[in-house]
Amino acid sequence: MAKRSSARRRRSVDAEAILDATLVEAEASGWAGLRLHRVAATLGISLAELYLHYRDADAIAEAWLSVADQAMLAAASTSGLARRPPRDRLERTLLAWLDALADHRAVTAQMLLGKLYPGHPHHLAALVFRLSRTVQWWREAAGLDAPPPRRQIEEMALTSLFVAAVTCWAADRSPEQTATRAFVARALGAADGLAARLFAKAPLN
User: How confident is the prediction along the chain (205 residues), in pLDDT tens digits per residue?
Assistant: First the structure.
């Protein structure tokens, strides 16, 4: 116990510094080539100290994706957004999620692809839960509150749209990600029209 406590007291960097250093290292090596001992050496800490913050590289990837979740939720508080139509709220918050990751887009795409590796089924399962959780927070950020069964239909549609948007974004080389922005606008417009036809009420909610 004394050794564990002293190790905690000796922590010389915080989780954010480790995340930043990992992203820099991954930009040079690729996510698959990332080695945490190099990250630790860059920061001048031991692997044991790094482990106090992150149990493995996948935990660092989760922390990075959580940065986007936080940006999406922060966007929900934008002045006047709550008075906008649901389609606008969905678009603004989704783009905030993507924009938060834009500085390391290629590495982020590699992180997500790495979770699909057949030899790591536990990472795939975690990705499914992560996707579900992010979509739930996206609905909250956009202020959607439809009751069942409409809620379940919205969740399925938004999950598909989210995956398609991230796929488009990962390959987007246009200035200011204009191709992704156009795709999101079109996709949400189509979803809005479909919802109006399905429920014969206000599109989305």
Answer: 444 444 444 446 899 999 999 999 999 999 999 999 999 999 999 999 999 999 999 999 999 999 999 999 999 999 999 999 999 999 999 999 999 999 999 999 999 998 887 777 887 888 999 999 999 999 999 999 988 888 999 999 999 999 999 999 999 999 999 999 999 999 999 987 766 565 555 455 5
Domain spanning 66-199, CATH class: mainly alpha
Q: Does domain 1-55 have CATH number 1.10.3470?
A: no
3-state secondary structure the chain: CHHHHHHHHCCCCCHHHHHHHHHHHHHHHCCCCCCHHHHHHHHCCCHHHHHHHCCCHHHHHHHHHHHHHHHHHHHCCCCCHHHCCHHHHHHHHHHHHHHHHHHHHHHHHHHHHHCCCCCCHHHHHHHHHHHHHHHHHHHHHCCCCCCCCHHHHHHHHHHHHHHHHHHHHHCCCCHHHHHHHHHHHHHHHHHHHHHHHHHCCCCCC
User: Is the whole-model pTM more than 0.85?
Assistant: yes
